[in-house]
Design brief:
With about 110 residues, this protein is mostly helical. It has four helices and three strands. Strands 1-2-3 form a three-stranded antiparallel beta sheet, with no helix packed on it. Helix 1 runs parallel beside helix 4 and helix 3 crosses helix 4. It is globular, with a radius of gyration of 13 Å.
Length: about 110
């Protein structure tokens, strides 16, 4: 729920798929969109994932570099590690929202 809350707070539309301890993050175009197949996954915003990945890395959280790979959470992750990840995600989602806003044409 921490990642979903961080994305929502940053107004960054995100679909989170989870099976057990595997999590997939998909930067969708609109809030509420789901990702359930290859076509939907490849239609997601790869540039947003790139920004998110690098911002997380800059904040000491190492994720898979591809948006098509899963995150894994386990009992080996302490509460402090989870909190650090969520704190970094707040910054990373904000950076994605800023990037997306900069790409919109002026009205």
């Amino acid at each position: 729920d921490g990642l979903a809350h961080a994305a929502k707070k940053a107004k960054c539309p995100l679909a989170i798929n989870r099976v057990g301890s595997m999590i997939g993050l998909f930067f969708v175009k609109e809030e509420g969109q789901s990702v359930g197949n290859f076509e939907q996954a490849t239609a997601c915003d790869g540039e947003a994932y790139r920004v998110f990945f690098h911002e997380m890395l800059d904040n000491g959280v190492y994720l898979a570099p591809s948006p098509f790979e899963a995150l894994f959470v386990s009992l080996a992750h302490s509460d402090e590690a989870v909190d650090k990840t969520i704190d970094a995600a707040h910054k990373a989602f904000a950076a994605v929202t800023k990037m997306r806003g900069a790409k919109k044409p002026a009205k």
